[in-house]
Design goal:
Part of a SCF (SKP1-cullin-F-box) protein ligase complex. It is a single chain. Helix content is 62%, strand content 7%. The protein has 146 residues and is mainly alpha-helical. The protein has a two-stranded antiparallel sheet with strand order 1-2. The chain is flat and about 60 Å long. The termini are far apart.
Length: 146
Amino acid sequence: MESKVTRMIKIRSCDGAVLDVPEEVAVQSRLIRHAVEDFVTAETLNLAFEYCTKHADFAAAAAIPAADDEKKKAAETEIKDWTSSFVNALSMDVLYDLVHGSNYLAIEELMDLCCERVAGMIRRKSAEEVRATFDIMNDFPPNGED
C-alpha cells in the first residue's frame, strides 16, 4: 500500500487553540474549502495585509491624544498620499487580483479603493479606449453599439 503525503492545515479556534487538520478533512467545511482553494494568491494577501497594516498604524497614531491639529492633519495627508501611491503603483493584473481578493477577504476600504482606481481608468474614455485599456474584444455587430 502506497503512503500518501497529507497536507496539514492549521486552524486557530476562537479560544486560541491551534489545530493541525488534514486538508481533505478541513475542506469539508465550505468556508475553509474556499479559503484553501480560492484564488487569493500570496502576492494578493501580502498587498492586502500591507494595506491593512499601514492603515492600522495610522489609526493607532490618530488615537493618541494630540494637542496639535497640525500633526493630525499631517498624518491624514500622509495616509492619503501613501494610499494613493499604493493603489497607483499596481499593474492591471495585480489590481484585478486585489479587487477580487479584497472582496473575498471582506476588506471593504481596500476594495473601494481599487474600484475607484478602475473607475478612474474608465472615466471620460470612449468605448474603444476602454476596450483597449482592459483588453476587451468588441463583439457587437456593426451598428450594434448605439
